[in-house]
């Protein structure tokens, strides 16, 4: 395992659809880092730059203490799992895993033993190991691709949307298996995904990418609880995000509501983030409550997710514990916004 350092990487050549613009990043030895962003933001381009499949226009790539910027992929000692798995169709699962070791000159008995060990790690049965890719399910192919990438002990494992072609239940199961295998191997890993649930569940740290730039890096909790900008907050699925339209010494205005001014420097065009689990809904009017109408109610297992439209026209989401008096579409409510429900998100230059 090794650390990885990217210094001011840039790639905007003609023919590269997803540009990368001045990205610097350090991956810690042994961590699982998730690179999160919408389709077309440059995630896969960045992965190809790290792996040597693309040459950067500017910047450097370091793996461990070695500057590998000019090295081809085969000299970087990295493993890659592509979205389509890229297995050899004429080889069975065991032979696919052993193939990379054969190329490196490992003796047959050793490479078969190593391939068997890796397939034990990913949970492929003896019968499945003798099947060709066309005879394996998508989840089994994904396991084979992961075992092959890990077989030769890479310094860095790169995963490009590895669960994109799998159904939801299988994705969730394989995420946990991947995390267990990664912990066992202690291989530094970078996983590219557009699925925020996947990134938040898997990553030791995550990085949010947008239009070729890395906007924020931190632990899943840090990034989710304290998004660096409205773009990050929006991509992470925060629905209650409202632009601050007026700032006065002791109050602000957002979503047509006048609220006490939170601490810290705030300017118009910053955003107010309201946490849906902290909002309080009442049937009676009261001071510092805002009238609205319930327009939708959805059961979410442990709570109800209510959509409320305020008189100002703003729509927000509020969570209501089961067992409280029920609210239905069309009901009038008064929304209380406690201080604990409010965070300020900066309007960063992007």
Task: Give a brief outline of the structure.
By secondary structure, the chain is an alpha+beta fold. The chain has helices at 43-51, 93-103, 108-122, 126-129, 138-150, 168-185, 196-202, 220-225, 230-235; strands at 4-11, 20-27, 32-36, 58-63, 66-67, 78-81, 156-160, 188-193, 205-210, 213-218, 241-247, 251-254, 257-260, 271-274, 280-282, 289-299, 303-310, 315-321, 332-336, 342-345. α2 (93-103) packs across α3 and α2 runs parallel beside α5 (138-150).
Tell me, what's the shape? elongated
Q: pLDDT average, as an integer?
A: 91
Please give the share of residues in helix: 25-40%
Helical run tally: 9
Q: Terminal Cα separation, in Å?
A: 34 Å
Number of strands: 20
Could you characterize what this model shows?
Strand 1 (4-11) and strand 2 (20-27) form a beta hairpin. Helix content is 25%, strand content 32%. The chain is α+β, with helices and mostly antiparallel strands and 350 residues long. The mean pLDDT is 91. The strands form four sheets. A six-stranded mixed sheet has the order 6-7-8-3-9-10, with helices on both faces.
SSE blueprint and pairings:
Blueprint: E1 4-11, E2 20-27, E3 32-36, H1 43-51, E4 58-63, E5 66-67, E6 78-81, H2 93-103, H3 108-122, H4 126-129, H5 138-150, E7 156-160, H6 168-185, E8 188-193, H7 196-202, E9 205-210, E10 213-218, H8 220-225, H9 230-235, E11 241-247, E12 251-254, E13 257-260, E14 271-274, E15 280-282, E16 289-299, E17 303-310, E18 315-321, E19 332-336, E20 342-345
Parallel strand pairs: 3-8, 3-9, 6-7, 7-8
Antiparallel strand pairs: 1-2, 1-4, 4-5, 9-10, 11-12, 11-14, 12-13, 14-20, 15-19, 16-17, 16-19, 17-18
């Amino acid at each position: 395992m090794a650390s990885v350092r990217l210094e001011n990487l840039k790639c905007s050549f003609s023919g590269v659809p997803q540009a990368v613009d001045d990205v610097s990043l350090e991956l810690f030895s042994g961590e699982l880092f998730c690179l999160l962003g919408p389709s077309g933001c440059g995630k896969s381009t960045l992965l190809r730059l790290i792996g040597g499949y693309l040459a950067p226009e500017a910047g450097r790539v370091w793996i461990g203490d070695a500057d590998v910027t000019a090295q081809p992929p085969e000299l970087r000692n990295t493993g890659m799992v592509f979205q389509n798995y890229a297995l050899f169709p004429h080889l069975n699962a065991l032979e696919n895993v052993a193939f990379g070791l054969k190329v490196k000159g490992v003796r047959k008995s050793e490479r078969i033993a190593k391939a068997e060990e890796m397939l034990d790690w990913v949970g492929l049965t003896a019968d499945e190991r003798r099947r060709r890719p066309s005879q394996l399910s998508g989840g089994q192919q994904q396991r084979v691709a992961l075992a092959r990438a890990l077989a030769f002990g890479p310094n860095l494992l790169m995963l490009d949307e590895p669960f994109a072609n799998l159904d939801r239940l299988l994705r969730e199961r394989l995420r946990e298996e991947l995390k267990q295998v990664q912990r066992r191997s202690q291989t530094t890993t970078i996983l590219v995904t557009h699925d925020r649930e996947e990134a938040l569940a898997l990553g030791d740290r995550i990085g949010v990418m947008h239009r070729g730039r890395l906007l924020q890096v931190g632990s899943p909790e840090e990034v989710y609880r304290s998004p660096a900008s409205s773009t990050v907050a929006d991509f992470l699925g925060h629905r209650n995000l409202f632009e601050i339209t007026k700032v006065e010494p002791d109050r602000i205005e957002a979503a047509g509501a006048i609220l006490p001014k939170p601490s810290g420097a705030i300017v118009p065009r910053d955003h107010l983030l309201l946490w849906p689990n902290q909002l309080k809904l009442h049937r009676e009017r009261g001071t510092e409550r805002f009238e609205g109408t319930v327009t939708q109610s959805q059961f979410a297992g442990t709570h109800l997710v209510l959509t409320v439209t305020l008189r100002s026209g703003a729509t927000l989401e509020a969570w209501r514990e089961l067992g409280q008096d029920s609210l239905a579409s069309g009901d009038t409510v008064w929304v209380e916004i406690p201080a604990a429900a409010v965070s300020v998100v900066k309007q960063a230059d992007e």
